[in-house]
Design brief:
6 helices; elongated; two-stranded antiparallel sheet; mainly alpha
Length: 110
Amino acid sequence: MRWNLRLTAANKGIWKASELQRSLAEHGLVISAGKMSGLWSGQPVSLKLEDLDVICVVLGCEVGDLLIPEPENVHRPGQAEEAERAAVGAGTGAPKVIPKRRDGRSLPPE
């Protein structure tokens, strides 16, 4: 997920974190300067759902305006193996073959 607070606030005419902080306080959500800085400048470490409700009310927005899905960042099972096979198919070299004994144990180094 990508946090989209600054753009959402800008679309509502709020250009400074301190402006938003004051508006949130007027609606009962008092946020420290440090936490406000984290909310404003990047990804919040944590955020209560109740706080998210207040932010949405103050900005007149929906949760979907603040949280943008990024499904391409989700690693799926088998994705690494598929990428490795694709790299081999693209001529980047053969995968390393490690011989093993019939019982599954590795052979001693030569």
